[in-house]
Design goal:
There is one protein chain. This protein is mostly beta strands. Helix content is 6%, strand content 45%. The radius of gyration is 17 Å and the shape is extended. The two termini are 19 Å apart. The model has no long low-confidence stretch (mean pLDDT 93).
Length: 84
């Protein structure tokens, strides 16, 4: 069973990257990997934590969230975001 099925979400193809995005999300970004950096503690020792950086190559925004050419954050209702 894949992650989309487990989460009860719908996978839709991306336009520029070879992984699906979440259909139910009103805003999504397609990104290409730029670099992965292993983090280190204050003592300089490497830790098992990683910073992943990517370049945004495509943005998908529900047109209902754009008014007069400006993205309206409040309309996306981030205060009601699904929390696990």
């Amino acid at each position: 069973m894949d992650e989309f099925t487990i989460a009860g979400l719908t996978a839709v193809p991306s336009k520029l990257v070879n992984v699906p995005r979440v259909a139910e999300s009103p805003v999504s970004f397609e990104c290409k990997l730029s670099q992965i950096i292993q983090l280190q503690g204050a003592n300089g020792q490497k830790v098992q934590a990683w910073l992943t950086l990517g370049e945004v190559v495509a943005v998908h925004i529900d047109k209902a969230l754009i008014k007069d050419g400006v993205y309206q954050t409040a309309l996306a209702r981030p205060d009601r975001a699904r929390r696990t």
